[in-house]
Design a protein that fits this description.
- By secondary structure, the chain is α/β, with parallel strands linked by helices.
- Helix content is 32%, strand content 27%.
- The protein folds into 2 domains: 3-228, Spore Coat Polysaccharide Biosynthesis Protein SpsA, Chain A (Alpha-Beta Complex); 230-388, 60s Ribosomal Protein L30, Chain: A.
- The longest helix has 18 residues, at 212-229.
- The two termini are 38 Å apart.
- The structure holds magnesium ion (MG).
- Residues 240, 242, 265, 271, 274 line the site of magnesium ion.
């Protein structure tokens, strides 16, 4: 059975304050609505996602979600009920068997809740996730308690609420025609239309972002989760030396630089890339470059050292890790490195598939002292910060 989703984000979203409606405010660097929509777009059981937006929100939507593979959003109405009806209407031509209706302001919806709702629509025409009410409930007049409400059998209801598509579209049409415009969720419309609604367990963290406090709590929660998800932080270091020899260029950080000497070595003798490769390998306890690429192997004669660096980065990626930064220092009297630093950082960033601002390249001399000072060879040092799931 094919399933579509309607994401309702047509509310003014002003209760949270701020410069823009809550669904377009950023949590962990991304608009709330984008988090929500990506949860459905990324779910293998959902074939189609239809977003319903507020009347004046097209520009905000384009900025927040314009690059995602979505059909044009439809514009909502004065009430949530009307907005959902318009979303369902937009899906009519695409004929899904099932539809999940979800609040744009619930960005923490998990893949498993979506899966459970879909799975239970096998046996039921309407399925909603809910949590049993555990707090004691009071009814009050003003701020004075009138009585205590028996919480037996009471549930707090979440979204996504799932329905057989035909059943809920007909129920919505009937409710609209009957001028019943005051339903606060879609299950209420199903109940009103005589459809049996089944409860399944919701998720405690599938909360709705409503107030300014909710926005900052959601932001903190996502950032903390991201930090914890890659919480095993490693630092590796590498060091390499190559002697100058005959030649008319050197290759440093993947950049060819004209020089009155070359660097001797088995590969292209790119000492900074060798040092960086060792730093990455060291961060995950994978030995050094010589273990992975023995100098005795004729395959690596004159090889582009980007191969070695890519291999080390690949080992980190295979562990679902990321490279947080790398920093290199080249020590030589000549050639002059500074004119090439930008190009070098860009090349390393390209090999490692990270942003150039995560790569540092610096150069210094040894003040004419020692073997680098005498121009006999060149030294490269590197450190790298690697983050692994921990
Ligand atoms: Mg080397």
């Amino acid at each position: 059975m094919s399933a579509a989703a309607v994401i309702v984000a047509a509310g003014a979203g002003v209760r949270a304050g701020g410069e823009r409606p809550k669904q377009y405010q950023a949590i962990a660097g991304k608009p709330v609505l984008r988090h929500t929509v990506e949860a459905f777009l990324g779910h293998p059981g959902i074939a189609d996602v239809q977003v319903v937006i507020g009347e004046d929100h097209q520009a905000l939507y384009d900025e927040a979600l314009g690059d995602l593979p979505l059909p044009r959003p439809v514009t909502g109405g004065a009430t949530r009920q009307v907005s959902v009806a318009r979303g369902l209407d937009a899906l009519r031509g695409r004929k899904p068997d099932l539809v999940l209706i979800h609040d744009g302001a619930r960005p923490f919806v998990s893949a498993s809740v979506i899966s459970h709702v879909i799975a239970h629509l096998d046996r039921h025409a309407a399925v909603i996730p809910a949590l049993a009410v555990t707090d004691t409930l009071k009814r009050a007049k003003g701020n004075v308690v009138a009585d205590t409400v028996d919480r037996t059998g009471l549930w707090a209801v979440q979204t996504p609420q799932g329905f057989r598509f035909e059943a809920i579209t007909q129920a919505h049409a009937r409710a609209g025609a009957a001028a019943e415009q005051d339903f606060s969720d879609d299950a209420s419309i199903a109940e009103w239309a005589g459809i049996e609604v089944a409860l399944i367990p919701g998720a405690p963290d599938n909360t709705k972002v409503t107030s300014a406090d909710d926005i900052s709590a959601a932001d903190l929660r996502l950032r903390r989760n991201a930090l914890l998800a890659l919480g095993d932080i490693r630092v590796g270091q590498g060091f390499d030396v190559h002697a100058f020899g005959p030649g008319d260029y050197v290759t440093l950080c993947g950049v060819r630089i004209a020089h009155d000497r070359g660097l001797s070595g088995h590969s292209d003798a790119d000492a900074p890339l060798h040092a960086l490769t060792d730093a990455l390998l060291g961060s995950i306890g994978e030995g050094d470059i010589g273990v992975h690429f023995p100098p005795s192997d004729a395959r690596w004669r004159g090889a582009d050292s980007a191969i070695f660096l890519k291999h080390a980065a690949g080992l980190i990626a295979a562990r679902n890790g990321i490279i947080a930064n790398a920093d290199l220092t080249i020590v030589c009297e000549a050639p002059k490195i500074s004119p090439y630093v930008v190009q070098m950082r860009r090349r390393i960033a390209e090999i490692l598939k990270v942003a150039p601002d995560r790569i540092g390249v610096k150069a210094t001399t040894s003040e004419t002292m020692g073997f680098t000072g005498r121009g006999e060879g060149l030294v490269a040092m590197a450190t790298a910060t690697v983050r692994l799931p921990g």
